[in-house]
Structure formats: C-alpha cells, structure tokens
Amino acid sequence: MNTSHPLLAKFERSLTLTGAERDAINVLPVRLEVVKADQAILREGDRPKRSFLLVEGLACNSKVGPNGKRQILAFHLPEDMPDLASLYLDLRDSDTWAMTNCTLAFVSHRDLDRFCDEQRRLSKFLWRDTLINASVHREWTVNVGLREGLARMAHLFCELMLRMRALGRAKDGTCDLALTQADLAEATGLSQVHTNRVIQELRRLELISFARGQLTVHDWDGLVETADFRADYLHLPPVDRPESAPGARRA
Amino acid sequence: MNTSHPLLAKFERSLTLTGAERDAINVLPVRLEVVKADQAILREGDRPKRSFLLVEGLACNSKVGPNGKRQILAFHLPEDMPDLASLYLDLRDSDTWAMTNCTLAFVSHRDLDRFCDEQRRLSKFLWRDTLINASVHREWTVNVGLREGLARMAHLFCELMLRMRALGRAKDGTCDLALTQADLAEATGLSQVHTNRVIQELRRLELISFARGQLTVHDWDGLVETADFRADYLHLPPVDRPESAPGARRA
DNA sequence: CGATTTATTGAAGAAACTCAACTCGAGTGG
DNA sequence: CCACTCGAGTTGAGTTTCTTCAATAAATCG
Question: How far is CA A90 from the centre of its chain?
Fold first, then answer.
C-alpha cells in the first residue's frame, strides 16, 4: 500500500520537483472518496467547493442534449483532474460520471487556490493541464464534425490507447477500457447500431479488437491512417521509456 | 482616439480594478498590429513567443481535417485572447484566422508570465478566460454531435448574438457579423448547400434574418427553443444594463 | 461594366438513424 | 447444476438527414 500523496504522481510524471515543491504538495490536505460505477460525480449547475484528482477508475464528462441523448465530451483516466475548472469557474457546465468504480482525491478550493499562489511553477502546470483539456475538446469537435464513422471511432481508439500508454497502462498494444459500445456511441455522436457496425469493420480490417472491456490494437499504423490521427493535440510528455511504437504493425 | 491600454477594457468589463492593478496593466508593453481579412494569424505547429488580444475584428480558430475540409472551432470577437493558451502550452494545436481586418495587441510571454506572477487576481481572471473557452468548445461538440442541422445553426446564432450583446455590439436584436454561409458551414460541420437550406428555413420560420454580414433575431424565444439553447456555458458577466431580452418576441 | 465571390436550386446518392427482433455470455438463485 | 434474467452485442429493413455535383441567380468589387 502506497501512502504517498495522490498529486505527487501527477506532477512527477512531467516535472522534476524541488524539495520545497514536494513538501508543499505533501502538506496539501486531501480526502479520498469512492464513487460507484455509473454514479454522477458532479452535475451541470453544481457549484463545487473542491476539485478532485482521479486516483483510480474511468470517468467521463458529458452533457445532455435536446432529445435527452447524452454526448460524452471527454474520458478521464487516472491522474486526470476533471473538475479543475471549477477552481476559477464557479458554475459547472457539464456532468461528470464515474464509468467504473472510482477513487477520488478531493482538495478544497481554498487550499488549492493558496497552493497556486505560493507554488507558481506548479500552478502553471495545472493551468497547462486545463489548456490540454481544451485542446482535446477541440480535436473532439473536429472528430465529430468532420470525420465519418469509421475514422471517428478509430480516432477515439488512438487517443485512448496513447493516453493509457502514457500512464504505463498499456502492454503490447492492449489496455483495459471498461467501455461499452453504447459509451463509444455517446462519445462519437453515432448511434449504437452504427457504432456496432463501425467496430465490426475495424475488426474486419484487422486494426483492433475490442471486447469485454479490453482494447487491443493490432495494426497501429493502419489505425492511425484510417483515423487521420496526429497526436500533437494531446501534448503528451515525451516518452521516456524506449518502448518503440505503441503496437507493432500486424502484431 | 482612445489611447487607453487594450487590456483595460477586457478586465474592466468584469472586474473593478484597484489602482495598483490598473498601473500594472498600463505598464504592460503591447504592440499593435493589423492583419488583413482571410490571413492566417497563427498556424498549427507554431510556437509563439507572445499572445494577443483581439482589439477589433472577427477571427476564428480552426483545424483542417482529413479531406482537406476545415472545421471552425470557435469565433473570436473583440476583447478575446484567442491564443492565451500558448503562454503555457508551447505548441499551437490549431490555426487562427482573421475573418475580417483585425487589430491585434501583442504582449510577450515573458511580460505576461511576470504579470501573472505579480497580479494574482488578474492572473486568475485570465485562467478563467481560458476555462470559458474550453466550456464553449464543449458546447460546440454537443452542437455538432447531437443537434440536427436546424437546431445547430440556431444555436450558433444564439451564441453569437449573446456574445455580441455582452460587448455592447448588438442593438435591437441586430448585430454585424461578417460571416458567409461557407463560414457557418465550417463552424457547424454542415455542407454549404445544407447550410443554405437550414438558414432559409430559419428565415421562413421568421426567427432570424441573415444577409450581407448582418444578423437580426426576430424571435429570440423561438430561436432559443429551436436551438435548445441555454446560455450558462458562456459564463457571461451578469447584464448590468437593464435592456431586457436580447430581442423582443416577434420584433 | 465584367469578374468574382456568394447565395440558391434540383436531383441523385451516401451515410447514418430508427425500430424491432434476436443472440450471446455472465451472473444469480432455485 | 440448470433455468432464468439481464445487459451487451448483433442483424435486417425501411427511413431520414445530409451530401455531392452541377448549374443558375444574385450581389459585390475593382
């Protein structure tokens, strides 16, 4: 059981911390909470007094549209802070859902605000984190607005695989992703039926497997090509482990 | 000719500044530049060393998709800072275009970074500004992913009218918007032909007029309803002028 | 005024949607 | 251990929305 501060892992994945910075993080009071799968963590209209880091689990950000249908706007993986925005934007403008059982580390806005005043470098890193979020949103708009079904789904798989990989949670082109086809439909703006057909096509092309909450990329280059995927928008930290490509071609 | 600092107007629209804050802003070196209509201001892949405030004109943020088609991701009106993100996110992930002749006020990242360190309240306001940008991106994803053509276009008109209004640039439900139907098509992810038909339908329903770079809303409530529009996501400052609704019903 | 955008129209076709039924697999409880 | 249930995935068929192509009208600009 590791008792280190949940925020440490997040910062240390990208930064080399000074002693003072590390101390400031360790001193930041956090409160761990667990949310069951398919429960709302935050709702549109909420005015949270604290933000949280996703320690473990899979969450999503979504909005409900006219016909009652839901649009998923982002998936959140461990070390994400899906609600950092509420620190300086009182009113929540979308919902956040736990897709699996999630462990959350809450920090009060009061403490976080002071932390940002005192730890300028780390504050800028957090700001940057919210900017990357916005960049991902932009790419999703392109995805939904411009790409047809097959490319759209392929693009989503590319993003998820790379992000999981960056967290060290993908091995040999395989990672756990507890998503149903219905979830993928809501994320791509496609119907469930069409989502199913698109996934079948991706399988037929031998680009991926996706079943029982597990994604495997068989042909990374092929997937990237059908997705028109360029990873820049994710602003991922440079890969330090020399593990070559995310998945070998025709693995 | 007003010679006051371009950033002052932006801050003062939402905040009551202290003398020290006002001084800090006035001391911030800016450089005014003009960009002609249909010129790129920034490109994907750029690494700007300065950010800018849009002083006058209309700009947009966009990305080019697989088929060479362009998706517009946001429209930028005066007092916006379309590229504030580059302050803490080196690599530009989208293009910024001037849609009309634009006047830009550039501030170097070095100066802006120091400004943010020293002026904590104003720094948070700028951070908040980027968070609102992200919120708008989210709503656009919903727009493109969930709403059908008519509602999608109506939604865009609602947003633009409210934002122009918040700037005091709309009178009697009318505002100048130098956009072509092709621009609107790129912003909504619809084809030009379909965009044209959708706009005709909005006219037929007597909700709006849109011609020669001028938008008029004839029936705000009706437009809001067909758009499924809720303004929360814009996080607009509370309306101080008691000018009732943006446009009277069946004006 | 002629040239060049911008807007509009018609018609055929593609992509994706809805509805409805059916299969499959993983529990659960008798 | 088997029948049952329930969620997830799959299939077929008809329909809608939107696209593309191509041509025409109207507005704008030098």
Answer: 22
Q: Which fold has domain B149-234?
A: Arc Repressor Mutant, subunit A (1.10.10)
Amino acid (1-letter code) at residue A157? F
Q: Do residues A207 and A251 lie in contact, with contact meaning Cβ atoms separated by under 8 Å? A: no
For A161, the token pair is 């695989």
Supply angle C-alpha B142, B143, B144, rounded to 5.
95
Contact (CB, 8 A) for A237 and A226: no
What is the nearest CA distance from B71 to chain A, expressed in angstroms?
6
Q: Where are the alpha helices (DSSP H) in chain B?
A: 6-14, 19-27, 109-118, 120-146, 149-166, 181-188, 192-204, 220-227
Q: Which helix (H) or strand (E) holds B105?
A: strand B102-108
Alpha-carbon separation of residue B94 from A142, A179, B12 (angstroms): 11, 29, 29
The domain B6-139 having CATH identifier 2.60.120.10: the answer here is yes
Q: Are B85 and A135 a contacting pair at CB < 8 A? A: yes
Element (H, E) at B231: none
Q: Distance between CA A130 and CA A134 in Å, rounded? A: 6
Burial of B241 (0-12, 13-18, 19+ CB in 10 A): exposed
> pLDDT for A15-40, tens place per residue?
999 999 999 999 999 999 999 999 99
CA A183 to chain centre: 14
Contact call for A128 and B44, based on CB within 8 A: no
How far is C-alpha B100 from the chain's CA centre? 13
The full set of domain ranges for chain A reads: 6-139, 148-234
Q: Residue A7 — φ and ψ, nearest 5°?
A: -75, -25
The answer to whether the beta carbon of residue A181 comes closer than 7 angstroms to any atom of strand D is: yes
Distance CA B154, CA B151 (A): 5
What pLDDT digit, counting tens, does each position of B63-121 carry? 999 888 999 999 999 999 999 999 999 999 999 999 999 999 999 999 999 999 999 99
Residue nearest to nucleotide C8 (CA to C1'): B196
> Beta carbon of B92 within 7 Å of strand C?
no
Phi, psi dihedrals of residue A76, rounded to the nearest 5°: -115, 125
CB-count exposure of residue A200 (10 Å: 0-12, 13-18, 19+): exposed
Q: Strands, DSSP E only, in chain A?
A: 31-35, 40-42, 50-56, 59-64, 70-76, 95-98, 102-108, 170-171, 174-176, 208-211, 214-217
Q: Which residues of A touch B75 (CB under 8 A)?
A: none
Predicted pLDDT of residue B237: 85
CA distances from A222 to A137, A204, A225, B95 (A): 24, 12, 5, 27
Residue B188 near residue B152 (C-beta atoms within 8 A) = yes
Q: Write out pLDDT tens, residues B28-69.
A: 999 999 999 999 999 999 999 999 999 999 999 999 998 889
CATH annotation of A148-234: 1.10.10.10
Q: What pLDDT sits at residue B240?
A: 56
